[in-house]
Amino acid sequence: MGEVVVVTSGKGGVGKTTTTANIGTGLAALGKKVVLVDTDIGLRNLDVVMGLENRIVYDLVDVTKGNCRLRQALIKDKRFDGLFLLPAAQTKDKTAVNASEMQNLCESLQEEFDFVIIDCPAGIEQGFKNAIAGAHKALVVTTPEVSAVRDADRIIGLLEANNLRDPKLIINRIRPDMVKRGDMMNIEDMIDILAIELLGVVPEDEQIVVSTNRGEPVVLDIQSRAGQAFRNIAKRLLGEEVPLINLERYEEGLVNKLKRFLGFKE
Amino acid sequence: MIDFLKSVLGKEKTGSKNLAKERLRLVLVHDRASVSPHLLESLKVDLIQVISNYMEIDEKALDVQLSSDNDSVALVANIPVIKMKRTYQDARAN
Question: Among A192, A195, A266, B35, which one has the highest count of C-beta atoms within 10 angstroms of its own C-beta?
């Protein structure tokens, strides 16, 4: 039986969809059978991030309403045999599905897949409740900003109230240069505030924009540091112990080299 | 001049992140209390139990809430006392 993992954040725009796409693709690259489920009904995006938007025939609502069989709605990824997407409906709203329908759907999917990864919509309303209904495990994505951390804290409280204990934290878009000069909260600050276990840290990376433009998850880009961070997260989900990537190394720009040369930096 | 150099060269560690952390700490005290209204209720029940060992209080008029100043959050409890218990010493002795 597979594991159902929901990717949440509370606040929009912190990288839930990017995280879902990359973790899922990362797990598929490690040979796992994975299905990504977009529950952001009315605002679907996982299809474009994955580059599969032209192949949608049926969607999540068609499945729950019985307009098609589950198999027919699953879109097979072009890169990996074991990777599938169940897209959200674009023309309906979040009340088109309810929590028990989602629970049934997750139960059917977990029989066939090693991982069912659910992309949760922003907010704490019906869409959130649907997304977490069938999940065994929750990931909370946040960025090092006051607003995102506050919402993450609220989501953690709601997850625990819904019996999704021990959610794991992903800190996204961290900027080592800003952390260094004390203008951005660091990893310890955020763990201290949110008091949950860290699953991974993803540095800010321009390649994310490029990879989204292309519809190719950045986890497949061997050069990208964000890609490396997502590859590590995928391995950790499989129980492997992988150390955090050294964020400092990427910060060594010209200015720092100069500072080191002039002796202002140890 | 030295300060200017330090700030240009990033040696100064007084960035805005401490402000962010402090503001978050305060706002989360309130957020967490409101996510579980249950928490304050349960605290009330425990308070009544403990205080009742020492004095008789008006349980219905008991009021407990969080109040915040600029840089701190306090738990404010208003607990009307009806009368003191004379048996306090004895209870401790036993």
Answer: B35
Q: Looking at the complex, report in whole angstroms how far the Cα of residue A131 sits from the nearest Cα belonging to chain B.
A: 20
Q: Does B20 touch chain A (CB under 8 A)?
A: yes
List the structure tokens of A58: 């049926």
Query: Cβ contact (<8 Å) for B16 and A189?
Result: no
A34, A27 in Cβ contact below 8 A?
yes
Q: A226: which residues sit within 8 A by CB, 6+ positions away? A: A202, A203, A204, A205, A207, A208, A218
Q: How far apart are CA A181 and CA B15, in angstroms?
A: 6
Task: For each of the domains in chain A, give its residue range(s) and CATH number, in order of start.
Answer: 3-262 (3.40.50.300)
Q: Is the ipTM of this complex over 0.85?
A: no
The pLDDT tens digits for A20-79 are 999 999 999 999 999 999 999 999 999 999 999 999 999 999 999 999 999 999 999 999
Interface of A with B in 126-165 (CB under 8 A): 145-146, 149-150, 153-154, 157-158, 161
CB contact under 8 A, B9 and A264: yes
Contact call for residues A17 and A210 (beta carbons, < 8 A):
no
Residue ranges of the domains in chain B?
38-94
